[in-house]
Design brief:
This protein has a single domain, classed as Rossmann fold, CATH 3.40.50. The chain is 37% helix and 25% strand. The protein has 9 helices and 10 strands. Helix 3 crosses helix 4 and helix 4 packs across helix 5. The longest helix has 17 residues.
Length: 245
């Protein structure tokens, strides 16, 4: 049996007297789409930073794809990628140049073919010659997703992946992500405040509040447990009450 895509054990992160993440334990099987939800300040960003090895935990451990992030970070992150709409691009490069640079940085075996693949996935051919500084916020978001798929990651971590997109483009992006996740046997770990998006994409939801895990279930199970019409009502309950439904 393969090890989980993500395995977090008693993870804790403190900044002085502030405990941002408090004893977090969960595992995400490979091939699953798992959403990490919670109100602002719940500890989501800090958790993602520890998953990616950008911040060292105060205590506890993280394993990605069977590799210990603290001791085997290169092996873990070489099979992982990350996308957030707030990450800036090198503005003086054209889109095609930027994608090729990142393909080389990721040490993709066939960088030219990788760029062509993600260009085709997201319909980016009209943008390949455009300077990154001339992209709209929505275009930057789609380019960021394309960049994150260049190495065909086994684990894709997404932070608000469709926040800058109109409903039509957001729908197209979700369809692409769902398709490649199945075709590539890719695990997706997503944070989002777009509850319909989470209900559509996620097999499972982890709810954080105050750095602690309050709920771990499918969207349907969470709706049933709370008697809610949708996941937004569940979110409001957790955010305002600070306890699991």
């Amino acid at each position: 049996m393969r090890s989980p895509a993500i395995e977090v054990t008693e993870l804790k992160k403190s900044f002085g007297t502030v405990v941002a993440v408090d004893g977090l334990t969960f595992a995400v099987p490979r091939g699953q789409v798992c959403a990490l939800l919670g109100p602002n300040g719940a500890g989501k960003t800090t958790t993602i930073q520890m998953l990616l090895g950008l911040t060292l935990p105060t205590s506890g451990s993280v394993r990605l794809l069977g590799f210990d992030v603290e001791r085997e970070r290169t092996d873990a992150v070489s099979r992982t990628n990350f996308m957030a709409s707030y990450v800036a691009f090198p503005w003086r490069l054209r889109v095609g140049e930027m994608l090729r640079v990142y393909a080389e940085l990721y040490e993709v075996d066939r960088p030219k073919e990788a760029v062509a693949e993600v260009t085709d996935l997201f319909g980016l051919e009209p943008l390949r010659g455009r300077l990154c500084q001339m992209l709209s916020s929505g275009q930057q978001t789609v380019i960021g997703l394309a960049k994150a798929l260049l190495n065909r990651p086994r684990l894709l971590v997404l932070d608000e992946p469709t926040a800058s997109l109109d409903p039509d483009h957001a729908d197209q992006v979700r369809r692409v992500l769902q398709r490649v996740a199945k075709e590539w046997d890719m695990t997706i770990f997503i944070t989002s405040h777009n509850m319909p998006e989470v209900e559509r994409m996620a097999d499972r939801v982890l709810f954080l509040s105050g750095g602690r895990l309050l709920a771990d279930a499918s969207p349907a199970d969470l709706r049933a447990r709370f008697g809610a019409a949708d996941l937004e009502q569940v979110f409001l309950h957790v955010a305002r009450e600070g306890r699991a439904p």
